[in-house]
Amino acid sequence: MENPGSMIEPVQIGEFEREPVPPSHFKDWRKFLGMYAGEHAAGTEFVIGPLFLTAGVSAFDLIVGLLLGNFLAVLTWRYVTTPIATADRLTLYYKLEKIAGRKLVIGYNLANGLLFCFLAGAMITVSATAVGIPFDMPMPALTDTVPTSISWVLVVLGVGAVISVVAAKGYDAVSRFSNIASPWMVMVFLIAGIVAAKRLGVSSISDLWAVWGTGSEPFPGQIKFTFWHVMFFAWFCNAAMHLGMSDLSVLRYANKNTIGWTTAAGMYVGHFMAWISACLMFALYLKSTEAAAIFAGGGVPPVAPGPLAYEVVGIAGLICVVVAGWTTANPTIYRAGLAFQAIFPKSSTVKVTLVTGGIATIAGLFPAFAMKLLDFVAVYGFILAPVGAVIFFEHYFSQKLGLSKNYAEAKGISFNIAVLAAWLISMVVFYAWSLYKDVFLSFFTLPAWVACGLLFLLFSKIFQKK
Q: Which residues cross the membrane (predicted)?
């Protein structure tokens, strides 16, 4: 999963929000390679990796599924997102405003801001599992959905307060710190994975197969993950960024389309190496006497990043969990605040960001957002991806079908009903189908995206004629 904004905010905030990026500000591949590598080795990786094991995935399904799914994600960034970014050189928000109208963009900002709050809440939970270790705080279990102790509430409130205040007043310092910390976090992930593998007796691929085997039954409350679950999750966990076109705001600075390939650094450092390292850390914990005792008592071992990292690499792991959660939650709260401020433009950035941080902290009290992160990330991408289909289909097909490009801007309207109808219908139909058939939501992200694009063209044809 991405670390939203920690690496990219200095590039995009305060520059050319309502005009194309001029050639003098184009950037080459070196700027993007490090950005994506650091951005995707974030606090979410400490949770997503272990959750694969709780879903009973086999070694083959995980490794090959991640290899292929991440490659499909890179292809999507390269051939879907980047060409439009370099063609228009506009932010997602300004491009969407031209097509959908300003009032509809406010609705998008509300959805985006709330989802960012829940993601930041999950990262506050991650950091709290590390901060709580010196206080012998009971860790949330995989099946916990609500706060389980007073100490948990106090630690989360403390962590959330610090993160919120820093997000409101010290974003530049946090951004610089994130850039410095990211290479160190990547090294900790790598070292932790190697140490965990050695302690598991893994020194080759065949050893990994022997230790991991063909997977297991999923933990209570989890669905069984197969190769297809892993592949589609890896492809679409960042659907909001590539299919959803959020990264138009970043890639509009690219000096050529081939820069889309630099996203591979994030996918294979964060969403391959870091996820597998986190898996190995959890696999090591599952072989401990503590985990065996929990299983024997009919319970489910906790997926708490702090204790896992501390057991494998000590204090460095503990610090890494705190920093990873912090450097993910901080810019996420900041961006959610910006989204909300677009809805309440007369409010100060500091006040809006503090309120946003409060919402994220309340979300962090509930372990369900972190313990169900696979499901939440799937929902996050599913909701926001179809908006990108509107931009994609408009870019390539509107003029061929005799439709007006940038319709809201051309007609001076603030609300394009064709966009809203296409977005809502595609989401509701495929989400209901997912619930009715009890199918993992990531399987429906691409069909919903295509349906939204086609419906947008159909409704545009109808409404533009009127």
A: 59-80, 105-130, 150-171, 183-205, 225-244, 265-288, 308-329, 350-370, 376-393, 413-433, 439-459
Residue 225: domain span: 9-374
Structural domain contains residue 109: yes
Residue 126: give its domain's CATH number: 1.10.4160.10
Q: Is residue 403 part of a domain?
A: no
> What is the three-class DSSP state of 229?
helix
Q: How many CA atoms lie within 13 A of 145 on its CB side?
A: 1
Domain for residue 316, yes or no?
A: yes
Q: Which amino acid is at 116?
A: F
Higher local confidence (pLDDT), 203 or 186:
186
* Segment 237-286, tens digit of pLDDT: 999 889 999 888 889 889 899 999 999 988 998 899 999 999 999 888 88
- For residues 450 and 390, is the Cβ–Cβ distance under 8 A? no
The single-letter DSSP state of residue 138 is: P
Domain assignment present for 464: no
The total of structural domains in the chain comes to 1
Beta-carbon count within 10 A of 352 CB:
22
Q: Which residue has the tokens 């947008």?
A: 456
Q: Do 364 and 125 contact (CB within 8 A), yes or no?
A: yes
Q: How far is 81 from 240, CA to CA, in rounded Å?
A: 11
Q: What's the CA gap between 191 and 165, in Å, rounded? A: 32
